């Protein structure tokens, strides 16, 4: 799949937390439009850190970083919300808002973007139905199981139909059947045009889907062959 | 991109289990994005209530001083006094009639009345003792003149004519009193206004503290809002709305308490020791209520706007 436009581009990027040595160093990679990548590596390797830079939660400490063709490392603060709205993130620790219901959590990106509720109500309920939480739409996160929270987080990441989907261990808390469904969903969304990066340690799933894999080890990102190349 | 097309069966399945999801959404429509606990609801409301109570009292003193000043000065402004001295009663009487003639054909004199000599003597009684005034003194005659503003502003001609007609006549326009009263009134106004500004300043400071504390307490929420694409303005508006509601609640409580306090003061002034005091009777006219209500509204707006600016400033330092 030869993507015309670049969604993500890292050039010699380094990331250090405060005064600690660099967690990631010399990251150079690109993700084109409509591309799919798995991101693997041992725990603590920096998968989450790499995704954090992409969803603009952490600034690279050095190097160039382009997002949707814009120099994101140097973009003014006012430019960030528009970039973030094009990204859907499934956070590793979900990051649902405890005082909001499942429905409100999923609706959050729309509400924040100023969309009228009439325009997203259907989408939100359909998404929640799809992840099997149609009957828990009014539930607060505290009353949901880990797997249910994960599915709410998934629905929230997808509700705005983002151009780039980032999922950090999205199958970590669901049963294998749901895990497989979620992965297939990402593949479907990718076919519909979204670029996708899925960080996971579930090598079985990675192999079964046959998508390209980025491996992080010792602070470096390297491309290792996926089981079957591009789909 | 329609993601729900990916699994029609599952979707239909779940819809069957959830017959009326929509009603549930409407109930949750207005949930605030930043929860109550963050901006310390009750304490903030209480502090704003106190601030608005003080603001209303400051405003009330301002209005009272204004009213008192205008009553004193307008009474003094239309009045001038002609005093006629003389060696004996006959000389004084001659001076009085000469002065009255002059006053009668002076344009701008609305009314000129001679005060009874007994009346004048009575005024001196407290100092000289009962019945002594007339025995000891050649009490001057006093003519009270109600003057039109044109005349009031240029008394030199009248003064000269009076001096020519009645050598013992002096004209007092109460200018010294007038000036003293109005400068006293001005400093009273300045003080009340100063107190009002101080209270507004304190409301600002409290709002800054509370908004910062609220942001810190809601750090995770603010961070998630940013990551799903919220602008600083969106978050500031949420905080502002919350502070406005708290501020309004506090301001109304403060206003009610202040009106109660002022009502009690009013009753005390009408019935108690201060009944015949120097200050005008205090009452809450319709117009005055509006001014008093402006104080809590100002407190509330100051609180909300300060919170907004604080949030914008604090967030602008983040990534
Ligand atoms: N906010 C942070 N402050 C300091 N160190 C961090 C922070 N987040 C992650 N790290 C460190 O960065 C390294 C990579 O973490 P992470 O990106 O979460 O790895 P992974 O997602 O691959 O498990 C770890 O050593 C972790 O301790
Ligand atoms: Mg991680």
Describe the structure.
The complex is a heterodimer of chains A (231) and B (319). Chain A is of the alpha/beta class and 231 residues long. Chain A has a domain at 1-83 and 194-231: Rossmann fold, CATH 3.40.50.300. Helices cover 32% and strands 24% of the residues of chain A. Chain A has helices at 47-54, 80-84, 102-112, 117-130, 146-158, 176-191, 203-209; strands at 6-15, 24-32, 36-40, 62-67, 70-71, 87-90, 164-168, 195-199, 213-217, 220-224. Chain A has a six-stranded mixed β-sheet with strand order 6-7-8-3-9-10, with helices on both faces. The longest helix of chain A is centred in the C-terminal third of the chain and has 16 residues, at 176-191. Chain A is globular and about 45 Å long. Mean pLDDT of chain A is 90; it is low at 226-231. Chain B is α+β, with helices and mostly antiparallel strands and 319 residues long. Chain B has two domains: 37-72 and 179-318, no CATH class; 86-167, no CATH class. Chain B has helices spanning 8-17, 21-27, 41-78, 89-104, 117-128, 133-136, 149-153, 156-165, 175-217, 219-227, 232-271, 286-315, and strands spanning 79-84, 109-115, 141-147, 169-172. Chain B has a four-stranded antiparallel β-sheet. The chains are: A alpha/beta (231), B alpha+beta (319). The interface between A and B is large, with 52 and 37 residues. The complex binds adenosine-5'-diphosphate (ADP) and magnesium ion. Adenosine-5'-diphosphate binds at residues 17, 23, 41, 43-49 of chain A.
Keywords, please?
heterodimer; A: about 230 residues; alpha/beta; Rossmann fold; six-stranded mixed beta sheet; four-stranded antiparallel beta sheet; 7 helices; 10 strands; about 30% helix; about 25% strand; disordered C terminus; B: about 325 residues; alpha+beta; 12 helices; 4 strands; about 10% strand; elongated; binds adenosine-5'-diphosphate; binds magnesium ion
């Amino acid at each position: 799949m030869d993507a015309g436009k670049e969604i993500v581009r890292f050039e010699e990027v380094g990331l250090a937390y405060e005064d600690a040595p660099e967690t990631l160093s010399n990251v150079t990679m690109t993700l084109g439009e409509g591309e799919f990548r798995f991101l693997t590596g041992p725990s603590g390797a920096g998968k989450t850190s790499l995704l954090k830079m992409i969803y603009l939660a952490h600034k690279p400490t050095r190097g160039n970083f382009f997002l949707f063709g814009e120099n994101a490392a140097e973009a003014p603060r006012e430019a960030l919300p528009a970039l973030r709205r094009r990204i859907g993130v499934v956070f590793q620790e979900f990051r649902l808002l405890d005082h909001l219901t499942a429905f409100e959590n999923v609706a959050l990106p729309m509400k924040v973007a100023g969309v009228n509720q009439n325009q997203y109500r259907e989408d939100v309920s359909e998404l929640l139905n799809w992840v099997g939480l149609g009957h828990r739409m009014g539930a607060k996160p505290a009353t949901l199981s880990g797997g249910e929270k994960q599915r709410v987080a998934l629905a929230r990441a997808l509700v705005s139909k983002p151009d780039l989907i980032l999922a950090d261990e999205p199958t970590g808390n669901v049963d294998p059947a749901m895990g497989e469904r979620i992965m297939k969903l990402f593949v479907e969304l990718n076919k519909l045009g979204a670029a996708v990066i899925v960080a996971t340690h579930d090598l079985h799933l990675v192999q079964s889907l046959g998508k390209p894999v980025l491996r992080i080890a010792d602070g470096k990102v390297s491309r290792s062959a996926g089981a079957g190349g591009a789909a | 991109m329609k993601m729900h097309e990916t699994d029609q069966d599952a979707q239909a399945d779940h819809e069957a289990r959830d017959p009326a999801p929509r009603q549930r959404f409407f109930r949750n429509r207005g949930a605030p994005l930043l929860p109550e606990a963050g901006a310390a609801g009750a304490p903030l409301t209480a502090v704003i209530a106190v601030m608005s109570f003080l603001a209303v009292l400051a405003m009330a003193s301002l209005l009272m001083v204004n009213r008192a000043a205008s009553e004193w000065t307008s009474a003094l402004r239309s009045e001038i006094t002609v005093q006629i001295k003389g060696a004996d009663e006959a000389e004084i009487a001659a001076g009085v009639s000469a002065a009255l003639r002059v006053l009668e054909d002076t344009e701008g004199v609305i009314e000129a009345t001679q005060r009874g000599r007994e009346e004048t003597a009575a005024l001196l009684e407290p100092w000289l003792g009962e019945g002594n005034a007339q025995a000891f003194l050649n009490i001057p005659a006093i003519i009270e003149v109600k003057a039109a503003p044109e005349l009031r502003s240029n008394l030199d001609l009248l003064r000269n004519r009076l001096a020519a007609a009645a050598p013992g006549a002096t004209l007092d326009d109460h200018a010294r009193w007038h000036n003293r009263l109005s400068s006293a009134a001005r400093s009273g106004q300045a003080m009340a206004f100063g107190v009002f500004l101080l209270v507004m300043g304190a409301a600002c400071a409290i709002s800054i503290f509370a908004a910062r504390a609220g942001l810190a307490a809601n750090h995770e929420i603010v961070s998630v809002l940013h990551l799903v694409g919220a602008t600083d303005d969106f978050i500031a508006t949420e905080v502002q709305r919350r502070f406005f509601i708290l501020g309004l609640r506090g301001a109304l409580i403060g206003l009610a308490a202040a009106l109660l306090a002022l009502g009690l003061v009013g009753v005390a002034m009408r019935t108690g020791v201060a009944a015949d005091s120097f200050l005008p009777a205090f009452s809450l006219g319709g117009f005055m209520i509006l001014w008093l209500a402006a104080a809590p509204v100002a407190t509330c707006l100051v609180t909300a706007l300060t919170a907004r600016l604080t949030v914008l400033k604090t967030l602008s330092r983040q990534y």
